[in-house]
Amino acid sequence: MKSDALRGHLDAMVLASLEAGPRHGYAISEYLSRRSDGALTVATGTLYPALHRLEKAGWVTSEWSTVTGRRRRTYELTASGQRALGDRRAEWAQTSSVVTAVLGGT
Amino acid sequence: MDRPAGTCQSGSVSSTIDAYVTSLASATTGRPTRRTPRLLQEARDHLEDAALAGQARGLSRHQAEIEAVSAFGAVEQVAPAYRAALGLTRVRTAAISLLFIVILQPLVWAGWGYAEGEPTATGPGLVLNDLIEFIGIAYLVACPITLAACSAALRGPERTIMVIRIFGGLALLTGASVMVLALGLNALAPQPVDLLFTTVVTILPMSATLTMSTRGLRLISP
Fold first, then answer.
1. How many whole angstroms separate alpha carbon B60 and alpha carbon B54?
2. Which CATH architecture best describes the domain B79-219?
């Protein structure tokens, strides 16, 4: 999938990846890859600046933790981030239903 | 501490990852830093994880590193986002530090005046004093509002550069104004305040915030 098509949706997908619980960056990228069956081709390097921005926006928090013997930065969804995810889901449902209706061709 | 070429922090051979992170650091900060920014440490950790996963799938260490670096994205592709993230951290820290400095300044100067029995400023000195107070009060009001507004603005990825310019500009303008006015006030005072005291209390803290905000703004300059 072209990365241009994903622009604007990466934040929502990152927030969704944290809904089940805290994850470190690599686990988030693995989640995105697995859930999309490898269709997401966004450069994983752009994930970390996005996480930092979401942290400063108050939607995620982070802390160093030790995972399988290695020190990693782990991210967690905040209550505000949970609400934002709900809003993004509603927006996406509306957008996709409109686009599907128009592109459906019948 | 310098590590032998071709080895990573864990001691394994990691020339591709090392070269990539060094290149990303150079493209991001443009110069060596005393400590590795958190973003770059996370990038290295990610590449190490990806390389280990590649090895678990049967790739050689070298092939696994090349695959990990390739998936991470070309340095030219990811560096602008890293520069913006680091720039944001710097100008935000500068703006918040300046807020505390502005809050503490009147208390420290009042304490100094009380201890030294300083005469009240008159004439041009009084004008400068009022100007400093006005700038300080304006910043006390503007900074928290800007912080809240910028946190909201950061919820859209395209607004990061705008937020950096607002934070950096606010801190730069306030810090430079107060520094210049404080020096002028010191020179015009009937009994000039000890220059060392002015330097320690006002000039140095303001210089530190100016340097931090300038570095943050420089990271997003073309």
1. 8
2. Up-down Bundle (1.20)
Please indicate whether, in this complex, the C-beta atoms of A72 and B84 are within 8 angstroms of each other. no
Task: Give all strands (DSSP E) within chain A, no chain letters.
Answer: 23-24, 60-67, 70-77
- Whether B70 contacts chain A with CB within 8 A: no
Residue range(s) in chain B whose domain bears CATH number 1.20.120: 79-219
**Model pLDDT for residues B178-196, shown as the tens digit of each residue:** 888 888 877 776 665 667 7
What is the tens place of the pLDDT at every residue in B46-96? 999 999 999 999 999 999 999 999 999 999 989 988 888 888 888 888 888
Q: Which CATH class is domain A3-97?
A: mainly alpha
If phi over 0 gives left and psi between -120 and 50 gives alpha, with beta otherwise, what is residue B35?
beta
Q: Kindly determine whether residue A49 and residue B42, on different chains, have CB atoms separated by under 8 Å.
A: no
